[in-house]
Automatic annotation (TrEMBL):
Main location: membrane
Compartment list: Cell inner membrane
Source organism: Aeromonas cavernicola
Transmembrane helix found in the keyword field: yes
GO terms for cellular component: plasma membrane
Protein name per Swiss-Prot or TrEMBL: Trk system potassium uptake protein
Listed PANTHER family: TRK SYSTEM POTASSIUM UPTAKE PROTEIN TRKG-RELATED
Superkingdom of the organism of origin: Bacteria
Signal peptide coordinates: none
Length: 485
């Protein structure tokens, strides 16, 4: 294990991450409503820490193995999430305890969107901007950004890329050179963010709100600058823009890569992709089901308002974003449970969203159907196919292993939260909200997580990490075999 090389790389990342503190500092000095001193101090602390890790090990430049790539990925998220909590710890407004500061930072960086804060409308603009920025950086993965920069410093990136990119077929290379791939992916991500911000601004948001919400929309994060979330704007146009960009961000960015680099020939690639078709079908079903149930219960005054809320909330929760235009927890009971359950499916593999991923559920479904056919024809040979490509048996086994481990972790986290005194519904939804990175839950955490105990907050931070790192990347560190030479 190249420990000194790993420390050097982590030091570089912390030093780079420190620069993100300067942006909210500029916002604070521009709006003059507080927060500037905290972010300047946080910048200096992070820069000093990064320098202390990097400088003594600056000459340790060795090629990384896959197992070291996994360790670096986990260290990146834990260290940067911890450094990201510093401004919240130093601040008096908002006044947060250490567990709350870590919870908010990790929730932002993992694009979960769960919050312990209230009174967002009255907070300094710098902290509102910083929360959104954390989500934007975490959306595509700080590691993907890092591997576009670190090769210039003599650090290889393929191992990190393989450990970070989600999905059951993550070993597939998008281009031969990972640095080029990462740059193109971030270019697409930045372009979509700019288009989203422009659309929000033209629809009536202030420039500040438009930029902030474009950050959390493209990252599938869900943080907002207002307590009422997107409902604050009370605009059908803004709701529709949000839905469109949430669906775009929920699609595999590898697919975006293919389309953007072969425009306009490959524009229909989206509709030919089997995972995208299933994903859009799920979102359509959720919308129609919610709309029918709400209309039957006359939950809103007219059908247009019903369709507006049904579309927005079904897409927001179904894509693991967590924006709100209304309290979906107050809907007829089948709908909150249905939407919370849908978060386990989540978005497409390789997107900025959370959940188990649509592709994995497609493979699980096909495997289930294959087993049924085998009961009828035991000697027949059935091959699983996604589109026109056969799915290797190794991938099927990996998906089953992932699913089983995911469910076991889910149950263990629920039991742990119940042991802290949390009721069953709240524990179920809190774990679902953090493990799938959707944000808002049900019961006592429907609005925010401020009422949870300190122990529960630390457990939920761990759940966020498991969800963001797709379970195995983090879990592999707990196996004895990993630490053997």
């Amino acid at each position: 294990m190249q420990i000194l090389s790993i420390i050097r790389i982590v030091g570089l990342l912390v030093a780079l991450f420190s620069s993100t503190m300067l942006l909210p500092a500029l916002v604070a000095f521009g709006y003059r409503d507080g927060g500037g001193a905290e972010f300047v101090s946080s910048f200096l602390i992070a820069l000093l820490l990064g320098g202390m890790l990097w400088f003594p090990n600056r000459y340790h430049k060795k090629e990384l193995r896959s197992k070291e790539g996994f360790l670096i990925v986990v260290l990146f998220w834990t260290v940067l999430g911890s450094v990201g909590a510093v401004p919240f710890i130093l601040s008096d407004a908002p006044n947060m305890s250490v567990p709350e500061a870590f919870f908010e930072s990790f929730s932002g960086l993992t694009t979960t969107g769960a919050t312990v804060l209230t009174g967002l409308d009255d907070l300094p603009k710098a902290f509102l901007f910083y929360r959104q920025l954390l989500q934007w950086l975490g959306g595509m993965g700080i590691i993907v950004l890092a591997v576009a920069i670190l090769p210039l410093l003599g650090i290889g990136g393929m191992q990190l890329y393989r450990a970070e990119i989600p999905g059951p077929v993550k070993d597939t290379k998008v281009t031969p050179r990972i640095a080029e791939t990462a740059k193109v992916l971030w270019s697409i991500y930045l372009l979509l963010t700019l288009l989203c911000a422009l659309a929000y601004w033209l629809a009536g948001m202030t420039l500040f709100d438009a930029i902030c919400h474009s950050f959390s929309s493209l990252s599938i994060g869900g943080f907002s600058t207002h307590d009422a979330s997107i409902g604050y704007f009370n605009s059908g146009a803004i709701n529709l823009i949000t839905v469109c960009f949430l669906l775009i961000a929920s699609i595999n960015f590898g697919l975006h890569f293919t389309v953007f680099t072969h425009m306009p020939v490959r524009l229909l690639t989206y509709l030919r992709d089997p995972e995208v078709k299933v994903f859009l079908g799920i979102q359509l079903f959720l919308f129609l089901f919610c709309a029918v149930v709400l209309l039957q219960h006359n939950h809103y005054e007219d059908w247009l308002e019903t369709l507006n809320h049904a579309l927005f909330q079904s897409v927001s929760i179904g894509t693991t974003t967590g924006y709100n235009t209304t309290s979906y927890a107050d809907w007829p009971s089948i709908l909150p449970i249905l939407l919370m359950t849908s978060t386990f499916i989540g978005c497409c593999a390789g997107s900025t969203g959370g959940g188990i991923k649509v592709m994995r559920f497609m493979i699980l479904f096909m495997q289930g159907m294959r087993e049924l056919r085998r009961l009828v024809h035991p000697r027949a040979v059935y091959t699983l196919k996604l589109g026109h490509k056969a799915v290797p048996e190794r991938v099927v086994e990996a998906v089953w292993g992932f699913f089983a481990t995911y469910i076991i972790l889910f149950v263990l986290f629920i039991l742990a939260l119940i042991a802290t005194g949390m009721n069953e519904l709240t524990a179920f939804s809190a774990v679902a909200a953090t493990l799938t990175n959707v944000g808002p839950g049900l019961g006592d955490v429907a609005a925010n997580f401020s009422s949870t105990t300190a122990t529960a907050k630390w457990l939920l931070v761990l759940a966020m990490l498991f969800g963001r790192l797709e379970v195995f990347t983090l879990l592999v560190l707990f196996t004895p075999a990993f630490w053997r030479s």
